[in-house]
Amino acid sequence: MDPEMNDQFELMPHSGEPSSLSWRIAGPTPQQWLAIKDEFTHLYVGENRRLKDVRAILSRRHSFNASEKMFKRRIADWKIHKNYKAKEKELLAKRVKECVEAGHDVHTISFRGRPLKLDRVKRQYRSDKRFTQVWEQLSQSPDDIDTEEIRVKEESPSTATTRSKTLLDSSTSPDYSKILTNDTSDHGLLAMTSNILPPNELYNVEVALFHTQEAVQWQFTTFTPLKPRELQARFPDTIPEEVRSGQTDQVSAFWLGLYRGFDAIQTGKADESLTIFDKCCSMVQPLIHAAPLQLLSCLLVHFATPWNGMAALEEHLLSFIHSMVESSLGEHHPLAVALHKITAAGVRTHLVESMMQMVIQGYGTHRKSSNSSLFALRVDQIDMLRKRGSFQQAQYLCQQLLKDSQSMSPKRYRTALAALGRVYTEQKEEFAVEGVAHRILQLETSDSGSTNSSTAAWACDQLASICITRNDFASAEQYLLRAVRMSCASLPHRGPSAASIITRLDTCMRQQGKDVLFDGTHSNLPLLSQSLVY
């Protein structure tokens, strides 16, 4: 039952009692509940106060009166989770140990975007005598903690170097509990080697993945996204026209913006690329309030491999986005921490695939398999693996996506085929690409109820390239003309831009001795569309 209706039942009189005493406290309005939501969450979860204490505080501060039953309904409706699961406690306890071992302040650790409740994880290692002093320190105030009091066992530099190299060479995640030496003290104090702590790079990877998992849980538990109308009202100057008109969504516009900006700078159009990137930066804040995990996935795809020769621009874009997230959600928010870690290219190369998998698993757990966002993320994952040269894994995921998309719309199936085709293209499998491209065009021709111009344009472009290598310029011309028309009819796509198709079409027609119908610019695209020959 809706919480507002439940609250109204609190107004009904008790049968059999005098009417002057039978009315309960009137329930607050939805607007009043919304006004105290953030403060209630901070008091109840952030400060770990009891519900009756929070009720008293809100009553005293804001004259907000509601029964405990009303509050419990709202807690369920807002999906506020106060308790930790067993697996979460175990992972958090491990993180506390690593934090102490590295000499960091454990009170800076956050979980679900809020300070970690240290008392909830203490019992996980209460029986482990090696960490007696660690847990004793946790019971003190932050100012009293001195990690340097932990006794350290000396080790020769040669042994330390060998162990560190073993960690770096390992392809699996390190088990830090096995790195510690056995307890040789008589008092059960922590004994560990000063030179065999996890290398900074591996430690940062672990921290980033942990916070990524927290960010995933946060989006599907406590995060409330702004709806399109709310976004346009709150950020009127940063919503692109194509998004306001309903041609595309905010995430797709941002994805395509980064794609077009990178394409422009690669082709020497520096001024145009900076304009595009500036527009992308203006879309970051709305995305933080609408689809934060999809914002993260866009960055993982586009920055999966270093931008050769453009390290400064790459770092500037990532740093700007991180600062925007930090400003909107807080310095210690898990999404902000995860973004902070991936700004370092050396760490990012170890992170992107695992972070993307965490995002997809989160969506897969909380959304139906046919969900459009989940489908788009799976395509992005394949493209990311392709860019990184992980072709075997990319092909495996393509086969899974093709199988699942058969029960979805025909457009989804063609999109999955195109993802597979891009993997074949990267591997220079000409005959496989040709077969996939023909299949896409056949399916689009037979599907009169749906169009997928971007995917079909990619197929035409690939077939044209194959024809040119075979000196079949007449067939190449027809494919390129069809691709140009599709590029005019829709937003830019993942394949080559309309300008690059025009340039190739110009070359193709000159090879046949034909008159060129255009000057290499977009001004004559309508003429090209009218001259289309199938």
From TrEMBL:
InterPro entries: Clr5_dom, TPR-like_helical_dom_sf. It comes from the Eukaryota. This is Clr5 domain-containing protein. It comes from Cladophialophora chaetospira. It holds the Pfam family Clr5. Residues 1-21 are annotated as: Disordered. Residues 30-82 form the Clr5 domain. Gene3D superfamilies: Tetratricopeptide repeat domain.
